[in-house]
Design brief:
mainly beta; Porin; 8-stranded antiparallel barrel; signal; Outer membrane beta-barrel protein
Length: 193
């Protein structure tokens, strides 16, 4: 009889415990109402493009790049900073190349056309770079437009489209230009107030 009562008590206890384990279904956050808070003077942004894809018209080449970047907001909506340019290039009928470089940039977030969860921006950069193919130093220029969609108060997903120009040797006429698309993210860190 003791075993029956003990078994019954354990069964009731297990049933009560299992009913208490209710799963709450949540949906992932897809946007945040941020307004101007992330792009205020004194804030920082870090992140970059997790994949830049491009096609060169002159060189008939395909490239993919990773561009980590960091910037500081010198005034509301205007950030200056630097980005590293790390890439891989596959050239038709030639060896593959690995690229590297650094580019200071200026990014401006447009006040018009903005929503509470996103901002349009323009970014210009100028820098130098090199590659595994030779010892030439290249001048790199870029002009991009993009959209930052804030998924939290401090994280935004971005898409950029723009024109890129590279002159492989400053003394020679070897140059490349083309269009590029990139997808990335930024983390916005509040500065000292």
């Amino acid at each position: 009889m003791k075993n029956l009562i003990l078994t019954l008590a354990l069964s009731v206890g297990c049933l009560a415990y299992s009913n208490a384990q209710v799963q709450v279904e949540t949906t992932p956050q897809t946007s945040a109402d941020v307004g101007m808070a992330p792009i205020k003077k004194g804030n920082w942004m870090v992140g970059g493009s997790v994949g830049s894809l491009g096609y060169s018209f002159e060189g008939k080449s395909f490239n993919i790049n990773v561009n980590p970047r960091a910037g500081y907001f010198v005034t509301d909506g205007l950030a200056i900073g630097a980005q590293a340019n790390l890439g891989f290039k596959s050239i038709k009928d030639a060896d593959n190349e690995w690229g590297y470089g650094i580019s200071p940039f200026v990014r401006y977030y447009f006040p018009g056309g903005a929503s509470a969860t996103g901002r349009f921006f323009g970014q210009g950069d100028i820098g130098i770079g090199g590659s595994s193919a030779g010892s030439d130093v290249s001048l790199n220029l870029g002009a991009n437009v993009g959209y930052a969609h804030f998924i939290t108060q401090t994280v935004a997903l971005e898409a950029m489209f723009g024109y890129n120009y590279s002159k492989a040797n400053i003394d020679a006429a070897s140059k490349q230009s083309g269009l590029g698309v990139s997808v990335g993210f930024q983390i916005y860190l509040p500065g000292k107030r």
